[in-house]
Specification:
With 227 residues, the protein is mainly alpha-helical. The relative contact order is 0.06. It has helices at residues 2-56, 58-64, 76-99, 103-142, 149-172, 179-218, 220-226.
Length: 227
């Protein structure tokens, strides 16, 4: 009886193991197939969007206004295509997770899908700010009458980029606290003001040294009489 019971338990365990293994393999195959379809659809729609941008001459339009190089080595059309592909792949991941009954993976995909529109809004704010900063900086550097044009252009770029980052931070990182950026900016601004004050004082001191020496030399006799 004990032998027969043991054999029946082993057979039941083996059957359960084989069944679980087959279910896992089947679920994995479904996941791979759905994801491959998603990647194919993402690439297809990415090519369509790329062709659309090419026909409307988006990059040439940006280049004609001198802001095509404002995106830190990326292109505006390339960023849009990446966002589209990412959204499609994540959507297909959610579909695959729902088909194979994986609640955790489905929940992660659903959260990612919900986050991507917020990410897109934050990126739009940053990209517009970068274009505006690049355009204004180019105009400032082209101005021959404006002194310290390069330095002013850098300050304008940093100011616009910082404000855009403060505005976009709640969209890019909803859990982040924008006040940290505000305080860090105030610290940097204070340090810059102190450094500028010391620099100005040193420059004035060095510039006035020769003038003071010349005045003292001319009025040496008067100083001697007073003393």
């Amino acid at each position: 009886m004990a032998y027969e019971y043991l054999m029946s338990q082993l057979q039941a365990s083996s059957a359960n193991f084989v069944g679980s293994l087959l279910n896992g393999v089947f679920a994995f195959c479904i996941l791979v197939i759905v994801m491959l379809i998603g990647i194919w659809v993402a690439n297809l729609l990415g090519q369509v969007l790329k062709e659309f941008f090419r026909r409307v001459k988006l990059e040439k339009f940006l280049e004609s206004h001198g802001v095509h190089d404002a995106f830190l080595g990326f292109t505006l059309s390339g960023i849009a295509i990446i966002m589209l592909k990412l959204y499609i792949v994540v959507a297909f991941l959610g579909i695959a997770a729902d088909m194979i009954q994986m609640p955790m993976l489905f929940m992660l995909a659903a959260q990612a899908i919900g986050y991507l529109p917020s990410l897109a809004q934050g990126l739009v704010i940053l990209l517009v700010a970068l274009m505006a900063a690049d355009y204004l900086t180019d105009r400032i550097k082209e101005s021959k009458k404006l002194p310290f044009a390069n330095g002013i252009g850098i300050i304008v770029t940093l100011f616009i980029a910082y404000n855009a980052l403060v505005i976009a931070m709640p969209l890019l990182l909803p859990a982040a606290d924008p006040s940290l950026l505000v305080w860090s900016f105030l610290v940097l601004l204070s340090a810059f003001a102190i450094a500028l004050g010391f620099g100005a004082a040193i420059a004035i001191g060095l510039g006035m040294k020769d003038t003071v020496a010349e005045i003292a030399k001319k009025n040496r006799d008067k100083f001697s009489r007073l003393l």
